[in-house]
Design goal:
Blueprint (H helix, E strand, L loop, with lengths): L30 H8 L30 H12 L6 E4 L6 H6 L7 E5 L7 H7 L6 H8 L5 E5 L2 E3 L6 H5 E3 L1 H5 L5 E3 L1 H4 L4 E5 L6 H13 L1 E6 L2 E6 L3 E6 L8 H4 L4 E4 L6 H16 L1 H25 L7 H13 L6 H16 L7 H12 L5 H30 L1
Helix pairs in contact: 2-14, 11-12, 13-14, 13-15, 14-15
């Protein structure tokens, strides 16, 4: 009797036994191919899996994520253009939200990173003058020394048990032991020009979420402790996730997120089977799996950087802008952040396609992510009621004026 090979451990065995293509990336030659892959325009060929090994934990490869097309697209666009305003992932537990965000570490572009404790850069001098940087950096700048070095964008996670002192910073206890007063940088400062990930954002204490929102809006924040104070840069891209079963998000917070993504469980049994096998492979040997995706991940990282460099040249024609503005008007969206998210994400999508002109078709892709959950039924009814009251006031005023004139 001939034995059949045992493929139970193969991470890309089709479900249940049919010889169908898997989702392993082998045909990516541009960022457009990457976008097509994450949005499911084509499946990919099989590739061999290396031997497993006992290694340190590493982020799950972004290109190994199965399904969840909209989530992956939104996270890619946020990497290309932080001006989108961040991403909010809404869905039940176990749908891969946190895994997807952490996997961005495989694709992050390079940016000039400050060498200063306070985050000073040459761009700050160009934008605000020499007074915008600390005295030590002003001296270095005058001597022609660089204030930055090129590094990858990093993912900074807000711990679930973080206190307000951890978030904004406070007295450096080690320096205090030596009778020195010095402020310790908080998570918001560490997130400058990085991605700040906040899991279970709907469960945060009010003082913490207010600090995050204020820093995100201003790009800077000031910490005062007794006689000393310091101002830090906090120009981060905000990514949040939440399970709506555990509580709603305040409208003020919801409005700060540029793209809102609904993350549901995978419905296709084939996708669920491949997802399981990818997780099993990663659990047994993270480094072996990362090695399988290393070449494609490096190429994708290069393409993200190229799109990011192309982004400043991308233009929005008047006809496209008119279409987007009309859509927002029809949906009765009050917040001006709607236009920012819609147009900035559309520019990123065009740059990903190596184009310098945004098309109407780009709006069709981006609009659901940028405009959903922005219309407030309460505020619409509130303003309608107020307009009716104003109308009654005007009518009564006219009647009283008429009676006075007649007498």
């Amino acid at each position: 009797m001939n034995e059949q090979p045992n493929n139970a451990g193969s991470p890309d065995q089709p479900y249940p036994t049919e010889n169908q293509p898997t989702l392993l990336p082998s045909n990516i030659r541009s960022l457009k191919d990457l976008i097509d892959t994450v949005t499911g325009k084509y499946l990919m060929d099989e590739s061999e899996v290396g031997e497993s090994g006992f290694v340190d934990q590493q982020p799950f490869p972004f290109l190994a994520l199965v399904g969840q097309k909209e989530m992956k697209l939104a996270l890619l666009l946020n990497l290309i253009n932080p001006a989108i305003g961040g991403v909010l992932l809404l869905g039940p537990r176990g749908t891969g939200k946190t895994t997807a965000v952490r996997s961005l570490a495989n694709l992050t572009p390079r940016i000039p990173r400050s060498l200063c404790y306070y985050g000073c850069t040459e761009q700050d001098v160009e934008a605000q003058g020499i007074d915008a940087i600390c005295p030590a950096c002003a001296k270095k700048f005058g001597e022609g020394k660089s204030l930055t070095q090129m590094e990858e964008v990093r993912l900074v996670e807000l711990p679930l048990n973080a206190q307000i002192e951890d978030v904004v910073g406070g007295i450096d206890e080690r320096a205090a032991i030596h009778q020195r007063m010095r402020l310790k940088r908080g998570i918001l400062s560490q997130a400058d020009r990085n991605i700040l990930y906040v899991d279970e954002v709907n469960l945060l204490d009010d003082d913490i979420i207010n600090a995050i929102l204020d820093a995100s809006a201003m790009g800077t924040y000031t910490v005062r402790r007794g006689p000393i104070s310091s101002t830090y840069f906090a120009r981060f891209s905000l990514v949040g996730s939440m399970n709506p079963e555990e509580g709603a998000l305040r409208p003020q917070i919801m409005d700060r997120f540029g793209l809102r993504i609904l993350v549901d469980g995978l419905e296709d049994p084939q996708e669920r089977w491949i997802a399981y096998q990818h997780v099993d492979q990663y659990r047994r040997s993270p480094n072996a799996m990362l090695a399988d995706y290393q070449e494609q991940s490096q190429f994708a990282r290069t393409e993200v950087q190229h799109a990011r460099d192309l982004l400043p040249t991308v233009q929005i024609p008047a006809t496209v802008a008119k279409a987007g503005l009309h859509l927002i008007q029809v949906l009765e969206i009050a917040s001006l952040r709607a236009e920012i998210s819609l147009f900035e994400a559309s520019k990123a999508y065009a740059a990903a396609d190596n184009r310098s002109i945004v098309e109407v078709a780009d709006l069709e892709v981006i609009a659901p992510m940028a405009l959903r959950m922005r219309r407030s039924a309460f505020m619409s009814q509130y303003f309608a009621d107020q307009q009716q009251e104003d109308q009654r006031l005007r009518e009564n005023l006219k009647q009283i004026t008429k009676e006075l004139l007649e007498h």
